[in-house]
User: Fold this.
Amino acid sequence: MKQGSVKERVCRNCKRIVSGDACDLCGSTNLAPTYQGLLIVLKPELSEIAALLNIKKEGYYAVKVK
Assistant:
């Protein structure tokens, strides 16, 4: 996903970057329009950073939610 696209938002619960009205990972509708930093997780089972952040599914995540 390209940062700044029209429908892009960040889930305040799990920090996943989504394009709809609800998070496809946790189901939350508590979404923020802005964020800082981008973390792309390709293989969460092999990533130490994903383990530290408790990320279990590949995808795009925000580092900081505003």
